[in-house]
Amino acid sequence: MAKALTKRQQSILQFVQEYIEQEGYPPSIREIGAKFGIGSLRGVTVHLDALQRKGYIARTNTPRSIKITHPAYQSQAKVTMLPLLGQIAAGAPILAQEQVENLVPVPSEMVRNIRGAFLLRVKGDSMNGEGINPRDLVVVRPQQTANHGDLVAVLLGDEATVKRIHFHGDGARLVASNPAYDPIEVRQDDARIIGRIVGLLRDYEGMAF
Length: 209
Hints:
The protein is of the alpha+beta class. 20% of the residues lie in helices and 31% in strands.
C-alpha cells in the first residue's frame, strides 16, 4: 500500500502528472526545481526518492525517466493508435502502407487534434542530452516546414533522423544534443523535413514496442 504524501510531494506528483498529460513525456529534474523554487538538483531528487519509496513513481538513471505507477494518479485517458514507421523510402508518401511497421497505442492527450501523426523509433544516442534515448518512440506532427531551433524529424535519403534544426543562408544545420556528435550540414535539396517532434514514448522494462 502506498504511504501518505507531504503537501510538497503531492504538489510535485501532480505537476509531473499534468506535465506528462500535456507534453507526452515527464519533466526534467531542472524543470521540477524551477517550478517549485528548489535551488539544487539534490533538493528535487530527495522528493522524487520519497515518491518512489512510497510507491507513486518509478525512475531509472536516465533524464526524464519518471513514470507514475500509482493507479490513482495514472491517466485514464483514451488512446489513439498511431503507425510506427520503419524504413522510409525517399519520394514515397510518409504513411505508405509498406512503411508502417506496427500500430502503437498512444495517450490521446499526446496526439491532441494532430492529423496524420506517426511514430519513429530513435536510433543511436545523439539526442540523449534532451532525454531522448535509443529505441524511444517519438510522436511526430507531420509538416514540411520548421522554425529555427525546432526539434524535428528530417529525411536524409532513406534515413529519418531526429535533431534540432538551425537555419543559415540556403542550408541548415542538424544539431545533436550529445556533444560527441558533430552537427550535420545539409542543403535544402539534400534533406526533407517530415515533421516536428511533439511527444515521446519509452518502455521502462526494456522491451521493444
